[in-house]
Amino acid sequence: MSEKNKITIVGIAGGSASGKTTIVNKIKSTFGDDILVISHDSYYKAHNDLSYDERSRLNYDHPESFDTERMIQDVKKLQNGEEIDIPVYDYTVHNRSDQTIHVKPKKVILIEGILILYDKALRDLMDIKVFVDTDADERLMRRITRDISERGRSVESVLRQYQETVKPMHEQFVEPSKKYADIIIPRGGENTTGITILQEHLKLML
């Protein structure tokens, strides 16, 4: 692909409920049809062999819970101008659905997820690496609100998952990946200055 048609890959990482989606939406509002957003969550592995109860107890914050290899292959295809089919994950049943979303390459491909900076092969595809850094208490409150309203969860199940997997996995895998970021945005979506700087940087690159 020529330099003129080069696709810019932006990675936005950060802890669960850190404000990644808010930042992604603000970038989308700036670039409109020139941007394609791909979530690492879409690439959670399928577990059709397990019951709902078994799936609900899986650790979804460990790097092994994602089919990152497929995501890497899909991003490379997009870089080469090819169209792809993104998997669809259904949070209400803790499993990948049988649907996919067909997408075409765009000028900016934005990859978001808690662990996208953990994998070197995925990291190496990115032109800009961003880490959204938000206080743990704030992230927990946002996660409770989000999972109850959007994912049909109970407070007890959210807190149990946070204590058993989300917090320890954040400390073991997510937080250490911050060192790979080119840009760190504290306070998530509330940091309008940080988001504006990122938007202006992307405009310059394009």
Describe the structure.
This protein has 206 residues and is of the alpha/beta class. The protein has one domain (8-205): 3-Layer(aba) Sandwich (Rossmann fold), CATH 3.40.50. It has 7 helices and 7 strands. Strands 2-5-1-6-7 form a 5-stranded parallel sheet, with helices on one face. It has a two-stranded antiparallel sheet with strand order 3-4. β3 (84-90) and β4 (95-103) form a beta hairpin. It is globular and about 45 Å long. The two termini are 15 Å apart. 33% of the residues are buried.
Topology:
Blueprint: E1 8-14, H1 20-31, E2 35-39, H2 52-56, H3 68-79, E3 84-90, E4 95-103, E5 108-112, H4 120-123, E6 128-133, H5 136-151, H6 155-174, E7 183-186, H7 192-205
Parallel strand pairs: 1-5, 1-6, 2-5, 6-7
Antiparallel strand pairs: 3-4
Proportion of residues in β-strands: 15-25%
- Per CATH, the architecture is 3-Layer(aba) Sandwich
Rounded mean pLDDT is: 91
Radius of gyration: 17 Å
Q: Find the CATH superfamily.
A: P-loop containing nucleotide triphosphate hydrolases
Major beta sheet summary: 5 strands, parallel
| Name of the CATH first level | Alpha Beta
- Beta strands, count: 7
CATH topology: Rossmann fold
Overall helicity: 40-55%
- Terminal CA distance: 15 Å
